[in-house]
């Protein structure tokens, strides 16, 4: 049991990657406080994992009181806090012409500012146990796509924050801060998003190799498995690191021969 006796707070944990992380953490011996926006999904997840292993707290993490409330509820329920997983994210398409200030402010509120606020609220308690923070970023943090401008900027800021706090908090408080940057993941929301964009319902069964050399994209469960190392004591003193979870080099690629000379 790699996470035995750990108490872990997971934002955006009612669906997708967050839900997979919650399931895997419980399977490895942890107890989890899971946050999300849809009350019914939270209740269903607690029923699945067992009330002795999981609790749900439904609140928008951009609510100014959310960080303190999430930490307080975790402490009230379990008595301590060993780790925070900042997984909640706002994903939306925008480019240079459509990225207006309100959209960008919303992106930063969810993807950058709220994670920082939650870390601030959790720090006094994480420091008592030399706990850790795992931020869930995106490979788009390295530059992103033209139609993911606002999202990419916010995830780039999150990555800089991880490296900064991973150094300063570990030195002063013994709290590790790391990040994983998943590539394309097959979540239920991603399936719905692509259908709304006009793609066929089973679009994920026929993805060009340029995007998925394996012939498929990642499952949430695969991302959750990667999180175990960073949340466990096996991680040792590793801090301020960012790990890309992708099928190809984010910087520098061997493109298929069919693409040679076409770009």
From TrEMBL:
GO molecular function: oxidoreductase activity
EC number: 1.1.1.-
Entry keywords, A to Z: Oxidoreductase
Coiled-coil residues: none
InterPro entries, A to Z: NAD(P)-bd_dom_sf, Sc_DH/Rdtase_CS, SDR_fam
TM segment ranges: none
Enzyme class: oxidoreductase
PANTHER family in the record: EG:BACR7A4.14 PROTEIN-RELATED, ZGC:101858
Protein name in UniProt: SDR family NAD(P)-dependent oxidoreductase
């Amino acid at each position: 049991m790699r996470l035995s006796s750990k108490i872990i707070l997971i934002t955006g944990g009612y669906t997708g990657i967050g839900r997979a992380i919650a399931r895997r953490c419980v399977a490895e011996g942890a107890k989890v406080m899971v946050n999300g926006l849809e009350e019914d999904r939270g209740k269903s997840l607690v029923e699945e994992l067992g009330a002795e292993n999981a609790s749900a707290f439904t609140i928008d993490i951009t609510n100014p009181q959310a960080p303190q409330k999430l930490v307080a509820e975790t402490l009230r329920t379990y008595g301590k806090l060993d780790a925070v997983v900042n997984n909640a994210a706002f994903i939306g398409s925008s480019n240079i012409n459509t990225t207006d200030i309100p959209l960008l402010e919303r992106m930063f509120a969810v993807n950058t500012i709220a994670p920082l606020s939650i870390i601030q609220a959790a720090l006094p308690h994480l420091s008592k146990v030399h706990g850790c923070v795992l931020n869930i970023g995106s490979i788009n943090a390295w530059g992103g796509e033209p139609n993911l401008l606002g999202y990419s900027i916010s995830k780039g800021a999150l990555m800089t924050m991880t490296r900064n706090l991973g150094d300063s908090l570990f030195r002063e408080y013994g709290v590790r801060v790391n990040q994983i940057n998943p590539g394309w993941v097959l979540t239920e929301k991603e399936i719905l998003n692509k259908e709304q964009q006009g793609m066929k319902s089973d679009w994920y069964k026929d993805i060009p190799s340029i995007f998925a050399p394996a012939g498929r994209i990642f499952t949430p469960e695969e991302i959750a498995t990667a999180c175990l190392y960073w949340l466990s004591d096996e991680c040792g003193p590793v801090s301020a690191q960012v790990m890309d979870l992708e099928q190809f080099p984010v910087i520098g690629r061997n493109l298929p021969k069919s693409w040679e000379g076409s770009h």
